[in-house]
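Our preliminary data section would be incomplete without showing what the modeling component actually yields. Below, a chain of 221 amino acids is followed by its predicted structure, encoded as tokens that our downstream tools consume directly.
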Amino acid sequence: MSTTDNQTIQPVKKGSFLQENNKSILFITGAVVLLILVYLWYQGVYLKGRAEEAASKMYKAEQYIGVDSLSNKAIKGGSGYEGLEQIAKEYDNTKSANLANLYLGGIYLRKGEYKQAVDALSKYSATGSPVADPLALGLLGDAYSELKDFKQAATYYKKAADKASKFTSPMFLKKLGLVNENLKDFNGAVDAYTKIKTQYPESAEAQLVDAYIARAQEQVK
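Predicted structure:
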């Protein structure tokens, strides 16, 4: 019998999963902690700093937004300040950049640059605002209407009407009815106009809506 045969073969002892994988678990845990710290820094320091910087740069552009003759300055900037285009591009993921896209959409629409309006408004992210969110959707509807894409316009007017307040929803419903008529969807037009009459009877749109209902009903086959 050989020396090897005389040796007692000891079974391999297996510890718990934690004992066997101690180093791997410590490494993974450390990596997770590091990622959390990086995320917290990104949210609390980096993004916050960028947001504050973007907000400070919006001031001058916002002064020019409502003035047609200064709309190009609002868009492009000048005299040492950045315009809305640059703010939207440079400070993405900030509230100011999001708002800049909404402003840009409105300005482009007013200037008759409808494709640019669609591009800017499509970059706007809903914030939960009962004013800004439906406005962005309604402006998209306006831009698509001007581009004669009435199907897309109807989609956005409906979304805007669903999100809007009692003060602006009738306006979007009226626009929805009009584009539905262009689409030859006269039942859809009747539905939109009827909602104005039944749900918003005190609105300005409701005062003349009977004529719109009658016109659309005449076309229903």
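Residues 134 and 160 are 4 Å apart (CA to CA). The longest strand covers residues 77-78. Preliminary results of this kind motivate Aim 1 of the renewal.
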